[in-house]
Amino acid sequence: SQAEAGVKYLLFGVMATGFMLFGMSYIFGLTGSTHLTVISDKLNLTYAQPAAVVAIVLILAGFFYKLALFPFHFWVPDVYEGAANETTAFIAAVPKLAAVALLIRLVTLITAETEVIINILILCALLSMFYGNLSALVQKDAKRLLGFSGISHAGFVLVGLLTLDSTGYATAIYYIIGYVFMNLACFLVICRVSEKGRNVAIEDFTGLHKRAPLAAITLTIGLFALAGIPPFVGFAGKFLLLVGAFKQGHLLLVILAAFNTAIAIYYYLSI
Questions:
Q1: What values do phi and psi take at 120, rounded to 5?
Q2: By C-alpha distance, which of 10, 147, 4 is closest to 77?
Q3: CA pair distance 268, 62, nearest whole angstrom
Q4: Sign of CA dihedral 64, 70, 74, 80
Q5: Taking Cα atoms as reference points, which of 180, 178, 183, 175 lies closest to residue 242?
Q6: What pTM was estimated for this model as a whole?
Q7: pLDDT tens by residue, 169-202
Q8: By the 8 A CB rule, do 182 and 226 touch?
Q9: Distance CA 271, CA 268 (A)
Q10: Strand, helix or coil for residue 141
């Protein structure tokens, strides 16, 4: 129900914000400042301390919630399904763009020496991809499917941030902008097909090419791009992200991410 979706979104949001503020209090205790430049200089000297690692992980948790990254992804399918179609389209797109921009600003504080944090980010990226894609395989509701696919795409964005260089950050921004537009294209069709604002099942798209050819083409382009099929934006984004991670030596991550792309192609094209 809509009330349940609203409560779940609020409660998870409050919890994630609490984690983030708790982490910020640790950072302030370690560095004595709230200015990012001062924090960056002082954290380089204190990264070995467990408190610094805990602080950064807690702050990242707040952004993970907005981006729907594992383990702060639980709210996504239920909120997507419970909210109105137009509202879901907004929360599936706009906050993620802002979350990636802020996450990049935060990740720039991390140096390559902090292997613990990088390993945590790799684990979160992989778990997001696998959980999102495997869960999407069995979905019957279009919005739930896009919700689970959003969790897996968040994992891909994190692959760009793991490189800890400007090219990786730029690729992550490029990828999330492409994702936002393609997601909005899919939701546009959902809003068009939906009768009286009801949720749309995947089987409701049957025969769409006869009823509304333009909507069918729009949905096809959106799904092809999300699946990462050339020449659409998703292919270029995923390719650049994986190349960047490969150059940084994350070979296992690249192999598992490519495997996840194959899983995603199945459920996108099954529509």
A1: -65, -45
A2: 147
A3: 29
A4: positive
A5: 175
A6: 0.84
A7: 888 888 888 888 888 888 888 888 877 777 777 7
A8: yes
A9: 6
A10: strand
In contact, 55 and 27? CB cutoff 8 Å = yes
Q: What distance in Å separates the CA atoms of residue 191 and residue 16, rounded to the nearest whole number?
A: 30
> Greatest CA span in the chain, whole angstroms?
64
d(CA 4, CA 2): 5
- Name the DSSP class of 203: G
Give me 268's structure tokens: 């996108």
What is the C-alpha to C-alpha distance for residues 57 and 35, in angstroms, rounded to an integer?
18
With the CA atoms of 63, 65, 68 and 73 taken in that order, what torsion angle do they form, in degrees rounded to the nearest 10?
150
Helix, strand or coil for residue 201?
strand
Identity at 111, one-letter amino acid code: T
Residues 120 and 197: their CA atoms lie apart, in Å, by 40
DSSP-based three-state secondary structure for 197: coil
The encoded tokens of residue 70 equal 């594992």
Predicted confidence at residue 75, as pLDDT, reads 81
CB 110 within 8 A of CB 56: yes
Burial class (CB in 10 A: 0-12, 13-18, 19+), 119: exposed
What is the rounded CA–CA span in Å between residue 15 and residue 53?
19
